[in-house]
Amino acid sequence: MKALQFSRTGDLAALEVVDLPTPVPAAGEVLVQIKAAGLNPSDVKNVLGRFPYTTMPRIPGRDFAGVVVEGPQELIGKEVWGTGKEIGFVRDGSHAGYITLSARGVAIKPASLTFSQAASLGVPYTTAWDALERSLVQAGTRLLVIGASGAVGSAAIALAKIRGAQVLAAVRKPDQLKALQEQGFNAIQLDRPEDLGAQVNAVFAGGADVIFDTTGFWLPASVPALAQFGRIAIIAAPTDGHVQLPALALYRKGGSVVGINSLLYGVEACARMLEQFGKQFDDGTLPLPTGLIESPLEEGLARYADVNQGGADKVILLP
Question: Which residues does the UniProt record annotate as the domain Enoyl reductase (ER) (predicted)?
Fold first, then answer.
């Protein structure tokens, strides 16, 4: 089979297109023929050496959609999708023709999603789902999502909407603001951090119950925008990993910070998440992904470079 593989880290030039034997599933595993595989920023960071626990040589890639060709009889021929912390890091990932993983680590793909659409959703949607679950977003929760036009942010506002939360989306650019408003979301344009509290309180009197910062840069500014006993969920941080937090204001409000890390969840836990919200694509309550860039697996190095340079398009690799 064709695969992308790296045997060292630190440079994208370490990534090569190679021919490898088709893997053989162990007991309790499935062999999935990959039909489409998502390319996430974490896949690029993996090749660059940002994850010290990665073992090599390694096929990268976390998200996939495909067809089960070996494994338990009840799964043979099923169209599935999956993601998880193991694949691409300590066992071979999805940027290849085939992948093996736990039979409990795949979920049945929603019929309304194409393989490419399903492969685009794993990391963004499981991250957003975890953020909403752990910050206790439910019907009536006043939720601010910072960076709502990004992959995780857009997943968060879509999932929060079907939970019945009151959603306020925050973005940087006027065109992003307009697009969200045309979709029916209440939205604000981010400007100076010191103005965020007033902007949010003008919409949510007393502040937001939950603030989900998908960017890593608005944690200090979020505290004045937070309601009493509110929660701030974060998935990113500045390059050095540090921020100055107004701790006095945070604890006086009874506020808390919730760290969200998709790499805490293995393929089996992720499959259970996919099962929970996957059916909502089929019933029309979650929007189908659009604007995907499909690319042959053999052009993977160029696509990795695009993502590394900050390309906003969601890339799908096709074996």
Answer: 10-317
In words, the CATH class of domain 124-259 is alpha beta
Cβ neighbours of residue 89 under 8 Å, at least 6 residues apart?
A: 46, 51, 53, 54, 55, 58, 263
> Which residues are CB-neighbours of 233 under 8 A, at least 6 positions away?
131, 134, 135, 210, 211, 212, 213, 257, 258, 259, 260
Beta bridge partners of 36: 65
CB-facing half-sphere around the CA of 12: CA atoms within 13 A: 16
CB 170 within 8 A of CB 195: no
Compare 244 and 121 and report the one with higher pLDDT: 121
Q: Round to whole Å and give the CA distance between 300 and 180.
A: 31
Q: pLDDT per residue over 19-77, tens digit each?
A: 999 999 999 999 999 999 999 999 999 999 999 999 999 999 999 999 999 999 999 99
**Residue type for position 122:** G
Give residue 145's pLDDT: 98
Superfamily of domain 2-109+289-317: Medium-chain alcohol dehydrogenases, catalytic domain (3.90.180.10)
Q: 244 with 231: CB under 8 angstroms?
A: no
Asked if 155 contacts 63 with a C-beta cutoff of 8 angstroms, the reply is no
Nearest-10 crossing angle of helices 151-163, 122-134: 50
Q: For 239-257, write each residue's pLDDT tens digit.
A: 888 989 999 999 999 999 9
Angle formed at CA 298 by CA 292 and CA 302, multiple of 5 degrees: 65
Alpha helices in the chain (DSSP H): 41-47, 115-119, 122-134, 151-163, 174-182, 196-203, 219-222, 247-252, 267-282, 300-308
Q: What residue segments make up the domains of the chain, in order of their start? A: 2-109+289-317, 124-259
pLDDT digits (tens, 9 = 90+) for 215-239: 999 999 999 999 999 999 999 888 8
Cα dihedral 36→97→93→57 (10° resolution)? -150
